[in-house]
Each structure stands twice: as C-alpha cells, then as structure tokens.
Amino acid sequence: MPGTTLFDRVWLNAHLATMDGPPDDPLGVIEDGVIAAKDGLIAWLARRADLPGPAAQTVDCHGAWILPGLIDCHTHLVFGGDRAAEFELRLKGASYEEIARAGGGILSTVRATREADEDSLLRAAEPRLHSLMAEGVTTVEIKSGYGLDLATELRQLRVARRLAAEDPVSVVTTLLAAHATPPEFGGRRADYAAHVARDIIPAAAASGLADAVDAFLDSAIAFTAEETAPVLDAARAHGLPVKLHADQLRDDGGAALAARHGALSADHLEYASAEGIAAMARAGAVGVLLPGAFYFIREQRRPDLAAMRAAGLRLAVATDLNPGSSPAMSLLLMLNFACTLFRLTIAEALLGVTRHAAAALGLADRGRLAPGLRCDLALYRIRRPAELCYWMGGNPCLGRVVGGRG
Ligand code: DI6
Ligand code: FE
C-alpha cells in the first residue's frame, strides 16, 4: 500500500547498548545503530546499514548512546518530613541503630507520614521522582512502610499509583508494612508482624494497590526470621511476589530465607553469607545492592562480591531513596558508588540498573533493547557507556522514551 510505514518512529545515528549481549559482551553494543518502535514496542534494531523500511518519523541522535530506560528497583520515595536533624545527630556521633532504638529513625518518618494527607505526600514525592526521571529512569519501584497501619500504608501506595498516572514513567508498588513495629504495639514485634500477615496483606491485596510485598528482616531493629516468614507466606498466599531487606546490618540468614520463599530479590546483603548467596542464586533471586545506604550510614562491611560472582548471582543496583539511610536522588551516582565502593565492573553496574533491575521486579518486558520489549529508552551524550558510572554529578541524559513516546 502506498504511504504505509513499517515503523512509528526510528532513532538513527546512535550507539546502542542493548544490555542483551552474550556473556563476553554483556553490554551488547551496536555502534552506529538504529532502533525502531511500533505500537509502543521495540520493533527492530540493528546496524544502520540494515534499515529495512520507512518510518513515520525519524530522529537523528547525532551520535548519542541509547540504553534501555533505567530501572530503579528499590525506593521508598513517598514519605512525610525529612531526617536532616537526625543526620546532624549522626554527625555528632550517634549511630543509625542507636537513633532507631531511641524511637527516632524510621518511626520519626512514620509520625510525619501519618500526619500528611495524600496531596501533600504526592507533592513531596514528585521532585524526588522527577530527579530520577531526569537521568533516564523510566521504571521505579516505590515501597510503603512509613504508615505501619492499614490506612496510611494504602495512602502511600495510592500516592505511588497517582505518581505513575501523572508522568510518563512506570511505577511498581511494594507493600512494606513489616518495616518497623509501630508505637501502638508497645514493642510487641511478633504481634505486629502477625497483624501484617493476617490483616494488612489481605486488605492490600484486595485493594489492588500492591504489586509485591517486602519486609525488613533485622533481628535487632526490625523483625526476626521467625517473625518475617509468616509475612512472606501471607503475601504468596495472596498471589503477591515477595522481596526482602536482608542482612544489611548483621547476618540474620536473610539471603537464605529469601531463597526459601522464592523471593524476586533480597536487598542490601552486606552481611549475607556465601551459603545464603549461593541459595539465592539457585533460587533465581536477584541480589539488589544499595551503595547509597552503605555510604550514608557509613557501613564498614561490603557485600561479598566474590561469593556473588562465584555463585552467578544476578546483581541489581538501586538508590534505596529514603529519608533515613539513603537520601539519594541520583541513580547515576549510585552507579559510581557501586563501582567505587563495591568494586562492580562497568558491565555489572549497568546491568544492575537495566536487565537485572527488571528481573528484581519480575518484569520480563523491559530492561534490554530487543524486539518485542517495551520501547523504553534513555539517550545520553557520552562517548562510551563507562561514562555513566564515571562522572560524579552532572547529567548526560538527553531524553527518555516511554512506551515509544518521548
Ligand atoms: N533499610 C533501609 O535502608 C531503609 N529501610 C530499611 O529497611 C531505611 C529506612 C529509614 O531509615 O527510614
Ligand atoms: Fe530500603
């Protein structure tokens, strides 16, 4: 038919890091490449010379690099207040854990979040999300966990859904009601965890506001393995995939617990044992590294990268954007931290915010540049992909494409 175009839009004169290469070329680079979209999906990509047909619209990228839209797979970006005063206390010598035990920490954000209405939570969250998006992020996971009662947890999740409706970005929501024990439970952690399992998870599942469930396993300041397991069981019973904050401050056997529960990911993992890491790899869980939290609370222990590599564990990298342990509004800075503090390679770091971050969210339709996947792209003015991990600050992102538009 005359006038028929094969594609809606074609980006040409670009270098592609498909993140879909073989093990010896994990970035899957195509220099002087072309990528084409049709109906919101990647229809085709290859070297420029091979372009098979006409497009309704072509975009000259002037030699920019194109990656799959970045994925921040672990954030807590909907919350009330901030913890700058707590930061000052820490600078005078108090530790993150001491502040948490004294009723500050997470619980001070719970007080501020309970007091905030939906619109003010939304307005506070917008600039945090926009900061991530400006760097090329097209998918963000957002956790609740600063309500610790059904109404406020659902309010946080509703705000997360509203953020997705306002802006061209995908949001995956995670219920983290088992983040800390609220004051009204008077320290009865097991009772609160049982309440989460019995009451909050079924209601959140019925609301349709939660895409997954997470819990903070920490035997000293959050929940023990015994208290956490019923929460994960309840989530699975309601058809929700699970994730786990695991072994951040001590080895509580979190990595192994996550593996036993078929978790999509276990996150932090500074103290995870080699056995736990191997169990995760066998179970197909992703290890999510959060170097912003490691840096900001001045952790001393690094995740055991050697054990992770030996086990073949897939690694993701995320901001953990939260007011207490990682007020990090830049995923690109986390790439630098992951390489500098944890010694990830450039390829490991970049897979960690694309392909493996998608796996950490259970999303098979993104994270790589390949035909049939969502056409979510991030365009950068850089000479080589390593620059995304190299600069500290600044923003080389030229634009984002979400579902073929942008
Ligand atoms: N681990 C973390 O790093 C955040 N939550 C968690 O379980 C910290 C949350 C906070 O301090 O507000
Ligand atoms: Fe977290």
> Helical content, roughly?
25-40%
CATH topological fold name of the largest domain: TIM Barrel
Mean pLDDT: 96
Bound molecules: 3-[(4S)-2,5-dioxoimidazolidin-4-yl]propanoic acid, fe (iii) ion
Report strand %. 15-25%
State the separation between the terminal residues, measured CA to CA. 28 Å
Order of helices and strands: EEEEEEHHHHEHEHEHEHEHEHHEHHHEHE
CATH superfamily of the largest domain: Metal-dependent hydrolases
How many strands appear in the DSSP assignment? 15
Rg is 21 Å
- What structural class do you assign from the helix and strand content? alpha/beta
The number of helical segments is 15
Can you tell me about this structure?
By secondary structure, the protein is of the alpha/beta class. It folds into two domains: 7-68 and 368-401, Urease, subunit C, domain 1 (Roll); 70-360, TIM Barrel, CATH 3.20.20.140. Helix content is 37%, strand content 21%. The protein has 15 helices and 15 strands. It has helices at 84-91, 96-101, 106-115, 118-134, 150-166, 189-207, 225-237, 254-260, 274-283, 291-296, 305-311, 331-342, 346-352, 355-360, 387-390, and strands at residues 7-17, 29-38, 41-47, 55-60, 65-68, 70-72, 137-143, 170-178, 212-215, 243-246, 265-268, 286-289, 315-317, 377-380, 397-401. The strands form three sheets. Strands 1, 2, 3, 4, 5, 14 and 15 form a seven-stranded mixed beta sheet that branches. Strands 6-7-8-9 form a four-stranded parallel beta sheet. Strand 11 (265-268), helix 9 and strand 12 form a beta-alpha-beta unit. Helix 6 (189-207) runs parallel beside helix 7 (225-237) and helix 9 packs parallel to helix 11. The chain is globular and about 70 Å long. The site of 3-[(4S)-2,5-dioxoimidazolidin-4-yl]propanoic acid (DI6) has 14 residues, from helix 3. The site of fe (iii) ion has 5 residues, from loops.
